[in-house]
Amino acid sequence: MIRKKGLDVTVGKTGFDACTVAQTKCGASKYADGSTAGFPSPSNAYCYSACPFILAGGVHRFVGNASQIGVHQITRTYSEKKVSVRERYVVRRGKRMLERTITTTKFLGNLTTTEISMAYRRKLNAYFKGMGTDLPSLIACLRRRHRTFPFCFIRT
Question: How many domains does the chain have?
Answer without folding.
Answer: 2
